Amino acid sequence: MAMNPQLLNQTRLLVEKYDDSLKVNAALNAENRSLRVDIENKEANASTLIEHYQDQICDQTVRLEELKEIIRVRDIAEMEEKQKRKYMMIPSLSSYAKLGQKKSPC
Question: Which residue among 10, 25, 35, 106 is least packed, with the fewest CB closer than 10 Å?
Answer without folding.
Answer: 106
